[in-house]
Amino acid sequence: MTSSHDAPVDADLATAPPHRRGLRLQAALLVALLLAAALAGVLFRGVPSPQGADAPSDVFSATRASQAAAPVVAAPRPVGSPAVDAAREELAVQLEALGFEITTQEGIGVRTVGAEATSGYVTNLVASRPGSDPTGTLVLATHIDSVPGAPGAADAGVGLAVILETVRALGPEAMRNDLVVLLVDGEERGLLGAEAFLEDGADQLTAPVVVLNHEARGISGRPMVTRAGGPMHEVIGAAPSPEFESFTDALFEIIPNDTDFTVYRDGGWWGMDMAIIDDAWAYHSAQDDAEHLDPGTLQHYGDLTLALTHDLGQRDLDALGRHAAEQPVQTTAPWGVVQVPPSVMTGLALLAPVLVLGAIVLRRRRGELSLLGTALGAATGLLVLIAGVLAAFVLWSLTAAATPEMLSQTTREPVRADPFLLAELLIAAAVVAAGWVLARLLISRAALLLGASLTVAVLLAVLGAYAPALGGSFILPAALAALGTLLAAVLPERAGLAVRAVALLPTGWMLGTQLHTLAEFGIASAAGGLAGTALIGLGVAAPLLLGPAPAGERPARRPHRLLIPLLPAVLTLGLVVAGTSWTLAAPEPTQERVTAHIDGESGETVWEVSGSTDWGRALDGTAAQSDLTMPTLETETLEDSRVRITITGARDASALTLSPQTDRLFDVAVDGVPVDADDGLDALQIHGLRAGQQVEVTARAAPGEHLTVLETAFDPSLAAGWTEPGAEVSLMQPRTEVTLTAAL
């Protein structure tokens, strides 16, 4: 007996029987339907047109929001600088004019991670409006400071603009719940303002506290709710075109990004963390300015915050607390956010491969495929998934390594990412085409499609059992597709076609929304992820493209079809080359990192530059002798192996890093504020120093210990050998680093 995995060749389409041509037409129509659903998902993630200054007073206007924030985002405002002081004063004036009671909170924020601690001098701005019958407190939060050298129109000037226009649109009347605008300092240097407020100030708020935190990693795109805490699943539906994916919250547990929301949620507050992430090449750069911030993005951000503020401001927050223990897995559908208990999501994930197996058994009984052929199809699906992700990752890695000058210094994103994102999808298509042609030399179409689908279903089942929140956006479409696959195997052909068409729609929607979201994350952040998502979606949808197959369907042994993958491969290379040229020709300046390393004793200076431009390469490695005011360092031995370290700052907005050379520092305090580190510290950072400010650090140190103190400031023109770059160069947090040492 000859099994289907080693049978002779299929007929060409032109000579195929009418039934076979009809099945191929069905497949083409189903592919078109899948693409249409994906396009709908992409369009869903658009942003509205910005409202002008003449918009109704109770409506959010991006134009008015930009005007309100303009005086604040005109220049960089790092913690400890006169610019951040001026920004705080301007914000206080505007909020007081809107009827808020203004207070400021000065303190030292401290945050410890492992054996390293960050601290800093911060001044938070708190604006309050009591509620008419409060059941809790709603906090609208963002940070005032930006990184040195960046105006921060997006990070987090967009939050300032959104909050100012939101509270203006609310009008002067009190809402039911207390309303607090919390604008913290020192976020960029370690969430320091949020830490200081939670340590001393948060206890004055009426509980429960719900925070809407505003952040940015890019300058455009659709604002996202990236994380949530407490019963926010009961509230998210109040947002316009609501969108939330539980996997973004789960991702924060495994990636290094962080925001003030971490501090608020750890402090017991409920709430949402919101952000914009597209065009991340401008993140922490001089191009994060008002000119580059997309007004449509600002409009949607404001619409989102205003709608949620209306809801939470009037809602009974005590009653909302009854849902605080619920933690549903959430994903976005066209009609809103779908919420599924984690146990149900896990059950659906485990059910999907069972349903696919059921379809395989039914088709095996009808002689449409063999078990060996299906096993080969499953192996092909796994290999294609792995190869597609690796090919996409390697493609971008080689492209980035070949032309580092086109990348941003912070996120490593190109100014123009679209060609590289399309190239990733094309290289995945080339891998799929190669896998298809090679597998079809040995096995039938049914064995390949169902085997590949089984592989994807099993992988999602493992993910669903381990972390249902991470797989939430994939599991529901996969379960529905698996059900459609089984039903299509038992129903008459026309009914089966209708079921297949309906079952394809969730997968198409998922592909559109998730690929668009990943594209906003950027090619550097999502390299391989875009291809992986597309391949998983295709694996889920694959058996739905399969109609009734004749018994004993044959493989297609046509070696000349191995030329088919060459087309997407050639297009991939063309896109990479063209995209590189297009990006290098962009009008945006090339980003450079520059540091002057200065010996605090001798003044010897060595310049270090990333070297992406002729200017940078010329300055990199040059030496000079700097004559600038140095910070002063004094040490005093106390009882019980304790020491007092007194440092006087030399420049505004400067930072200190204290590092013992042999052992750790224990029982550390900064100006009397203890640093929580039971296992001691390898490094202590102190941010927000002013010129002439004295800092006192006490600690317990090993006998004979030596201390290295690094002062970081952000005006490279103070160091000898500096040359100003031209307009074609954008400096990324340029700095001077002065090194001092002392015996303890």
Automatic annotation (TrEMBL):
UniProt-recorded Gene Ontology molecular function terms: aminopeptidase activity; metalloexopeptidase activity
Alphabetized UniProt keyword annotations: Aminopeptidase, Hydrolase, Membrane, Protease, Transmembrane, Transmembrane helix
UniProt xrefs under InterPro entries: M28_fam, Peptidase_M28
GO BP, sorted A to Z: proteolysis
Domain Peptidase M28 span(s) in chain numbering: 124-308
Source species, domain of life: Bacteria
TM segment ranges: 27-47, 344-362, 369-399, 419-439, 446-467, 473-490, 497-515, 521-546, 566-585
UniProt xrefs under Pfam families: Peptidase_M28
Record-given protein name: Aminopeptidase
Organism: Brachybacterium ginsengisoli
Phylogenetic lineage: Bacteria, Bacillati, Actinomycetota, Actinomycetes, Micrococcales
